[in-house]
Amino acid sequence: MTRRLKFLAGFVLVCGLLPGQESELVQPKATPEDRAEGQRIFGTQCSYCHGPKGEGGQGAVLAVPRLPRAPDDIRLFRVIRDGIPGTKMPASALTPSQIWQVVAFVRTLGRVEESKLTGDPVRGGQIYATKGGCERCHTIGGHGGGIGPDLSDIGTRQNAAQVRTSLLDPDASVPLDFLQVRVVTKDGHSFAGVRVNEDSFSIQIRDLSNQFHSFWKSELTEISKEPKRSLMPSFRSTLSAGELDDLIAYLESQQGGK
Amino acid sequence: MKSILLLIAIVMLVDGQVPYERILKAHSEPGNWLTYAGDYQAHSYSALDQINTSNVDRLKVAWMYQTGVIGHFETTPLVFDGVMYITEPLSGVTALDLRTGRPIWTYKRPLPKGVIVCCGLVNRGVAVLDDQLFIGTVDAHLVALDMRTGRVRWDVEVADYKAAYSITAAPLVVKDKVIIGIAGAEFGIRGFLDAYDAKTGARAWRFYTVPAPGEPGNETWSGDSWKTGGAPTWVTGAYDPEANLLYWGTGNPSPDMIGDERNGDNLYSDALIVLDADTGKLKWHFQFTPHDTLDMDANQVPVLVDADFRGQPRKLVLFANRNGFYYLLDRLTGEYLVGKQFARQNWAMGLDQHGRPIWNPAAVPSMEGSLVYPDDDGTANWFSPSLDLQTGLLYQNVREKGAIQKRTTKSLSFEPGHLYMGADRLPIPGEEPWGALRALDWQTGEMRWEFRVHTPPWCGVLSTAGGLVFSGTMEGDFFAVDAVSGKLAWRFQTGGAIWSNPMSYMSEGKQYIVVAAGDALMAFSVDR
Questions:
Q1: Which helix (H) or strand (E) holds B180?
Q2: What is the ipTM of this complex?
């Protein structure tokens, strides 16, 4: 077939499996073999976007205890079967029994080791707003900057260990949508920031002061990209271990307004 | 007598009659587009030159049509006698009035539950013969429609959609038959190419692309693996009327991406098959990627050329393959003449003197993951190349993208209608894939120029007698470059990813360039 777009989002559709047809929603008891088969299917169908271990990438992180769009197995089944309209999550070409196998496997991903939260989220909130300087680039609950990812639901997308890694070693986990770029115009002006958009003829960036800039590539003499470099500083030496724990506890408490 | 003949001719034209002879002589009516790739030779070339290098900067949208259907809009329209016929996702067909862009009728396919298609419920176009249009559907039927009303004349099952057979390709009409290919090699189908009587829908012949025991080629499959051997035929081929031969590409063997249980070359997967158009008998074949474990479908459009080659007039077939190599073969004998790499690849160390690849053993899916170029979407894919014999260049969109190919299982079991593949594609960390429109000297495969695009494209190419080459990008840019130099001549941001082949037609003395972008069909013209 048109081939292997199957791994990219939005391309696989199953006709007729509409939300109204609920007879298949009787969940069979999952065996170890089902989970193994679910893992194999996940490997061929899901991991390109969600990562082999559900660690995320183009798609949502699944290695979390609670999936915001699929808090129970039936809703997870529906998400896999029907996709999520308006997102890159496509409907699936899997049979109901295969979907249940994937559900069984995805539920094991949430059982990744959880770092115990020892910090104080209230103190963490103060660090976020003051010493950490996070608000300059990040948004929570509609407040803050737009250079970095919106953290309003970071607690549902990343576990404490992942957040800790991001804070200590930001370069190790630069989100795909936040590529750092630098451009130089023909008249010698230089602009650096996060890539907002790019096509064959143009590029748009947002600089550190949240200013938006749009360029035709024909106006530029240089476009350099740093895919493994984050604009965010490491907090390894600027926050104490206790402050870091507090900040992580605050971020993990961000559950998307629920 | 003459006046009666003239009257008949006028009536035929008014009624939109398209006899076989008209398709055969498609070159004599360059203002129309009568078959998927414009002509039986599959050049995807327009002889219209009203839009050209001197005025293309004034090209503007003349009209648009929105399908309102979500899904990849992969159609290549047909145009004749004042009407355009397009297909839409979900196997729909719409007839559009060329004066206004307004729909005349729409056929919506009532699809059953549980249709299984690997890569979207797409369709790439209709075929025409006499007063009927033909569409292959994602539930694996072939349907004949009344050209004037869109009503169903006949509807036949080609294969069982519950076993994951599906049709996405445009049919090809040859004489009184409708040729149609099948898809589903991710699900362990046994591939074939079919011909149906255009009047009745009765099947005239079937050629299985995976031979059964006792047939030549079956020895290239171990055990019973031939039963689920894949080798689909989901992109429209070409036809040589003089030799009465069909040229058609075949896709990957099944199971996909894992070959342990199908030892051998796995004929006729990943091959060019050449069949007698009347009987479906195999004349010759050329296998590009024997025993494929990387999903290197040869489901591309073969391009036929009659020209002097190395000082002698030859009948040739060109094939820019998904595996990263360009091939030039003698069209009557299958003799291998040229093989040339035209994109980054590492799966083969090269081609031997017969054009057979020398496999790189490190570039196959492994449990720990192997770095492979190109990835399993390939260098080329279903999107059409375009041949301009004036420039001597074959214009081909190229995907420059590798992957970490990781086996997900040591062995597989087959169940009809279920995925039957054994590896996963992971992105290469830190690498941004890109693409290019490349101009290849058709005689040598040497690249003359390239026009780079931001990401790997899924758009076909149209070259025209106006000295222009049109193509598009996933970011929605539709553009034209100079056919000789490759320099940008014009661009337009359509606002939707382009998953289609551009084409051109003339209406009321005016040339139009057409492309589907997002879920809109857009026609461009130059004000005079």
A1: strand B177-181
A2: 0.82
